[in-house]
Amino acid sequence: MIISYRLCAILVGTITSVTAQAQNVSVPEVRNMVSLSASASVEVAQDLLTLTMSTTKEGSEPAMVQSEVRQALDAAIADAKRAVQQGALEIRTGTISLQPRYGRDSKISGWVGRAELILEGHDFARISTTASKAQTMTIANAFFSLSREARLKAEAEVQSAAIERFKARAGEVAKSFGFTAYTMREVAVSGDEQGGNAFRPQLLAMSAKAAMPDSAPMPLESGKTTVVISVNGTVVLK
């Protein structure tokens, strides 16, 4: 124990000494450094649909409400599974809840249960048709977005253009200030998605059967979004 303690003390002393010496070392000032930014973008169609179906049950007994919610969810899953196809349509459960309902006297007057089933994929027609056939759930909301694969492809298309624009701008700035060249100091490349309908609800919460008594598939049309690649950094003019 004594040996370990002394070793620790020596290490701490050494680190303190090195830190003190480092604080006395002056960092050379970098002159003629300029911060720049450039970007390039491409507009692409959203290729992923996420549709949420839900059911809500109410009653005086929590066990009864929970049972009814489970039965509705089980039936919807069984129906949807017949249309599942990797990439085209995949399903998963969403929020499942059971909450008390209070009366004016702040006492529990009943229970409300809710369950969600999410249909997601690239085949919009298959998803819409599957949702229209559900007997125990109705459409709560739906939105279009850009899949990871489509985003990466779009970013790859514009990344080179963004970098070339950054380099061209650096050269122009160097020339404008009377320099003949520049060197890169720091640079960061980042991607973003702007505009379009990404992650915006396309349908208001509604009862599909009330809106369309014949249970016809809900018409769904995707929008477009803009993928942007930005290059930010600093250069030293020479």
Write a short abstract of this structure.
This protein is α+β, with helices and mostly antiparallel strands and 238 residues long. It has five helices and seven strands. The protein has helices spanning 2-23, 62-81, 124-133, 148-176, 208-211; strands at residues 33-45, 48-59, 90-102, 108-121, 138-145, 182-194, 224-237.
Count up the domains: 2
The assigned structural class equals alpha+beta
CATH class of the largest domain: Alpha Beta
| Average pLDDT rating | 83
Going by CATH, the homologous superfamily of the largest domain would be Protein of unknown function (DUF541), domain 2
How far apart are the termini? Answer: 58 Å
| Helix content bin | 25-40%
Spatial shape: elongated
Spatial strand arrangement across the major sheet: 3-4-2-5
Proportion of residues in β-strands: 35-45%
What fold name goes in the CATH topology slot of the largest domain?
A: Alpha-Beta Plaits
Query: From the 3D coordinates, which CATH architecture of the largest domain would you assign?
Result: 2-Layer Sandwich
| Number of H- or I-type helical stretches | 5
Q: Round the Cα radius of gyration to an integer and report it.
A: 30 Å
Order of helices and strands: HEEHEEHEHEHE
Instruction: Provide the low-confidence segments as ranges.
Output: 1-20, 196-213
What is the strand tally?
7
